[in-house]
Amino acid sequence: MKNMLKLALSLAAYTVVACVLLALVNGKTAPIIAAVKEAAVQESLVDLFPGASFEAAPEFAPETAGTTTIESVYLAAKGGQVVGAVAQATGSTYDKATILVGVNADRTLSGIKFMTISDTPGFGQNALKPEFYGQFAGKPADSPFRVKGDVEAVSGATITSTGVANILKTTAKVVLDKYLK
Q1: 104 lies in which domain range?
Q2: Is residue 60 included in any domain, yes or no?
Q3: Are 124 and 157 in contact (CB under 8 A)?
Q4: Is residue 12 a part of any domain in this protein?
Q5: C-beta of residue 101 within 8 angstroms of C-beta of residue 91
């Protein structure tokens, strides 16, 4: 009985030390990870609207429509004139993806940038190829975004392609309705 108590106390002490160390490491690395993610977003914003300056959309609140969550919206301006908006959205694909969707003031897509996609390597990950994501630049933002209609699917990854199309459709609608009237 005495050995069991000693063993239990030793295990509890190790657990407490491990938890404290884990909390310290998390506290130290969380701001660094957040800064790296924000730098990646800022770099991608410039890719979607070269030469523009960006500011967070006023009165933005995250919103969910179906399986898509609009996490942030940035307005792109050149020479003091709003030339478009970029929305960051996460939604279901085969697993899930986070995409930046650029919408020009003329109601066309400036392009898309994948921030993350956790779909199957060799199939869903092929959405990261320019042959797939490149088809969206210049497309009207109010397109139906239907796979096998106006969207060419990734071969062997129809679910991923459909998920991306749904994220784009939902995100473009929100941007057009609320930020680029």
Answers
A1: 47-178
A2: yes
A3: yes
A4: no
A5: no
pLDDT for position 154: 93
Q: Cα(175)–Cα(87) distance, rounded to whole angstroms?
A: 7
- Token pair, residue 158, equals 């129809």
CB atoms within 10 A of CB 125: 17
User: Is 117 within 8 Å of 130 (Cβ atoms)?
Assistant: no
Would 18 be classed as within a structural domain? no
pLDDT for 163 equals 97
Question: Residue 85: which of 120, 111, 59, 121 has the closest Cα?
Answer: 111
Q: Which residue has the tokens 């970029």?
A: 86
- The pTM score is 0.85
Q: Which amino acid is present at 164?
A: V
CB atoms within 10 A of CB 85: 27
Work out the pLDDT band at 64, boundaries 50, 70, 90. very high
Do the beta carbons of residue 58 and residue 130 sit within 8 Å? no
**Residue in the structure block whose two tokens are 């993610």:** 37
Helix, strand, coil shares, percent, the chain, to 5:
45, 30, 25
The answer to whether 99 and 41 are in contact (CB under 8 A) is no
Query: Residues near 154 by Cβ (< 8 Å), separated by ≥ 6?
Result: 123, 124, 126, 127, 129, 132, 160, 161
